[in-house]
Write a structure and sequence with these properties.
Maf protein, five-stranded mixed sheet, alpha/beta
Length: 163
């Protein structure tokens, strides 16, 4: 499924639930927000985004634990979850989604190119997925957007099922 279709499905599920989403991006540098706002009517469900590319902004703006960043660096699943929660809180959204990772061309902090973490935050807690991606920098960033949209859609779909 391409990102346009994924983003349309995300917005439809958000509308159905009367919910909103906010985004925190590092690795993707705004690509995830762009995919979401490319859908007509996105303003009904998309609250906004923060591109916190610099490590210190993850703490200062999004509230990521400075100790966690000092010990593990910015590319860690808990950092992704805290970024998502920070976006959710800061921008007043039902859900938050976040991206962090190593797109290359060089390894970062001992982590290989393709190390990616996508964080999710919602009313029922936080989660992260950590796909290992390959390819060129642009490929990794684009694949991360797809992973983020799929993670969000999966959570929305499970929440929308009758109990």
């Amino acid at each position: 499924m391409n990102d346009r279709v994924l983003a349309e499905k995300v917005h439809a599920a958000l509308r159905e639930q009367g919910a909103t989403v906010a985004v925190a991006e590092s690795l993707t540098g705004g690509l995830l927000a762009a995919a979401l706002v490319d859908v007509p009517g996105a303003s009904a469900t998309f609250r906004g985004s923060v591109t916190a590319y610099a490590t210190e902004l993850k703490a200062a703006v999004l509230g990521v634990d400075e100790g966690l960043l000092a010990v593990h660096g910015p590319v860690h699943p808990v950092v992704a979850r805290q970024m998502a929660e920070g976006a959710r809180r800061l921008l007043g959204a039902t859900y938050g989604i976040a991206t962090t990772g190593v797109a290359g061309p060089d390894p970062q902090d001992g982590l290989p190119v393709g190390t990616v973490h996508v964080g999710f935050a919602g009313p029922d807690g936080t989660a992260a997925v950590s796909p290992v991606l390959s390819g060129q920098r642009a490929d990794i960033r684009a694949a991360t957007v797809s992973e983020a949209l799929e993670l969000l859609l999966g959570h929305l779909a499970s929440r929308g099922r009758p109990r």
